[in-house]
Amino acid sequence: MSTQTEDHLDHVGLSDQLGAARQEIEQLRRGLEAHAAVDQAKGVLMALHGMDAEPAWELLTRVSSESNVRVRRLAESLTALAGGSGIVDVEAARTVVVHLLRPAAGDRVAADFVARMIGRITR
User: Fold this and answer.
1) What are the start-end ranges of the H helices in the chain?
2) Using 50, 70 and 90 to split pLDDT, how confident is the model at 59?
3) How far apart are CA 100 and CA 51, in angstroms?
4) Cβ-proximal residues to 121 (8 Å cutoff; 6+ apart), any chain
5) Whole-model pTM?
6) pLDDT above 60 for 46
7) In this structure, how many other beta carbons lie within 10 angstroms of the beta carbon of residue 56?
8) Helix 71-83 crosses helix 53-67 at what angle (to 10 degrees)?
């Protein structure tokens, strides 16, 4: 093989490696973002329902499975609602309110919180 051909093959190989590395970095970035959103949502559920992290995770995954809405979408909608930012996904936000934010009977503070969340969705 000539040197020029070898140089070209080396360049193509490096380009492929660079492309693969960029894809992996993007996948890792998305994974970190999803993890952060889920952790924040678990924190909202823990504060609202007085539960620990494991039951909050179990609640998120159960509702995700039953409603056919990805955990990340539920988490992002829950944190958007709780933080007062814009709603990303109305379907997921409705699922969050109906399934995740049900206040305990007699918990007026939680009931008021849920009422505010419903108001944000229906505006």
Assistant:
1) 3-49, 53-67, 71-83, 90-95, 108-122
2) confident
3) 12
4) 81, 87, 90, 93, 94, 97
5) 0.58
6) yes
7) 22
8) 110
